[in-house]
Amino acid sequence: MHVAMKIVRSIIDHLPRFSTVLVACDSSTDPRYLIETLEERGLSILGPAYTKDHALTLAAHSRADLALVQVQPGEDDDGQALAGQLQQTWGIPALLIQATA
Hints:
Elements: H1 3-13, E1 20-24, H2 32-40, E2 44-49, H3 52-61, E3 66-71, H4 77-90, E4 94-98
């Protein structure tokens, strides 16, 4: 298993069941494995949001306990901006995770 996914699993293992996680990624990323992992642990999913605007709209209309923002290697500026905006506007802690092939 990829080291980043082990860290994500460790974090989500500490979330209470029925917590809500916002999943955001770009259109070139397939979030199915991540979503399946979250659902197996009894977590509710918002998304996936494939654009920053979609992620912000979901955050505005639903309460997320955590946001997982998948970014492509070397292209994390948008992800960092989204994570910061989720934290500042709605108090949603966000983790940037690197998308893998």
